[in-house]
Amino acid sequence: MREANGSSADPARVRELFDLLVDLDPAERGRRIAEMCGDDPVLRTEVEALLAMDERAPELLEDVERLVRRSAGSLTRPYEPGARIGEYTVLGELGEGGMGTVYLVRDSKHDRPLALKTLHTLPGAGLGPGRFRREILLTAKLQHPHILPVLDSGEVGGRPWFTMPYVEGETLRARLRREGRLPVDEAVRVMREIALALGHAHRNGVVHRDIKPENVLLSGGVAVVADFGVAKALAAARGEGGGEGGQAGRGADAPLGTPAYMAPEQVLGDPAADHRVDLYALGCVAYELLTGAPPFAGDSSRALIQAHLEEAPEPIAQRRPDVPPALASLIMRCLSKDPAGRPGSAAEVLHVLPPLFNISEPPKPQ
Predict the structure, then answer these.
(1) β-sheet bridge partners, residue 105
(2) What does DSSP say about strands 152-156 and 112-119: parallel, antiparallel, or unpaired?
(3) What is the DSSP letter of 154?
């Protein structure tokens, strides 16, 4: 957490004190915190926040792992070419991810190709199609050059689907797999365009909740963000369709997102989590664009999530010394475990970048 002047505690010192305190009983821990932190309220606040996260983590990690296991076992057979989904004819499969499968389809009414995504469901976690449709239609109102819009939505065989324009190009993930990392100026351009998309969505009350390279498309030298609002729509629909009283069961209550890019408060299911989860994910993506690897790694979902909760990312300069310090500092601010330590908005990110790289400053929000 930052003070009003923007200062924050040294991450290495926070982790050092956490390691010394985590196994103590509550009474002894309280006494030792007072001794070790002295008159440094910022240090004490960050250490106490990390300890609180640690106490809540085991139960939540079990929920996330349960969700991953159940999701992996729930995937249904893909649609073959010629199959019909609503008014659309399947031409082929474009790709598959954790939330669903994307198909190239033909819109016979308008004689055009579209991308159609069917979403995976979990056994015992019913989806309320009405609630899903209402939530996804909110995102359909987003019109922005860096947002891939939702055109239509529906349900087939208990699985929600929605259509988007078909964009020729590749995902940011495919680019990273091929090149490892991007030149600094290109990484900044992609970061800026994602931030422009986030700023527009946030001003319209939509939080993405699953920003990652797989959800960023590169076409004609422009980055376009896909799947806006899908995570929230799924969560809302599961709450509506999950049985008596709208409770889908504990496994379905686990947070939706991708562990490598999830903010600590999102992992913990904090009801106060807001648009700043997207800024954390933006920091994760920017870190990966510049270094070739996400800020945290782990050999399991549990280890990866634990790293988001407890570990400080390795300084960017240690992985890539040619990154300008001001840019590295901005990205590390986005990766603050405390939302208050991050930029307050995508607009703040956008107003920091132009002076660093002589790019046109975006217009201020009306």
Answers:
(1) 90, 114
(2) unpaired
(3) E
Both 182 and 40 in a single domain?
A: no
Active site residue 10: no
Catalytic residue among 107, 210, 227, 278: 210
pTM here is: 0.73
Asked if the structure places residue 345 within a domain, the reply is yes
> Mind listing the pLDDT tens digit for each residue in 340-362?
999 999 999 998 886 656 554 44
| Residue type (1 letter), 187 | A
User: Which residues are CB-neighbours of 213 under 8 A, at least 6 positions away?
Assistant: 171, 172, 173, 175, 176, 285, 288
Residue 12 has phi, psi (to 5 degrees) of: -65, -40
Convert 316-338 to b/e letters by CB count within 10 Å (16 or more is b).
beebbeebeeebbebbbbbbbbb
Question: In DSSP terms, which residues pair with 117 in a beta bridge?
Answer: 102, 162
Q: What is the pLDDT of residue 228?
A: 83
Residue 91: partners with Cβ closer than 8 Å, 6 or more residues away: 81, 103, 104, 105, 106, 113
User: Over 60: is that where the pLDDT of 365 sits?
Assistant: no
Residue type, 171: T
- 311-335 per-position pLDDT tens digit: 999 999 999 999 999 999 999 999 9
**Whole-number Å distance between alpha carbons of 27 and 32:** 9
Query: What is the total count of domains within the chain?
Result: 2
Two tokens, residue 248: 């889908």
- Beta-strand (E) ranges in 192-341? 216-219, 222-225
Residues 106, 221 contacting (CB under 8 angstroms) = no
Q: Is residue 5 in a domain?
A: no
Instruction: For residue 338, give both structure tokens.
Output: 């405390």
65 and 121 belong to one structural domain: no
Which SS3 state, helix, strand or coil, does residue 159 take?
strand
Q: Strand (E) positions, the chain? A: 84-85, 88-96, 100-107, 112-119, 152-156, 159-165, 170-171, 216-219, 222-225
Q: How many residues does the chain have?
A: 366
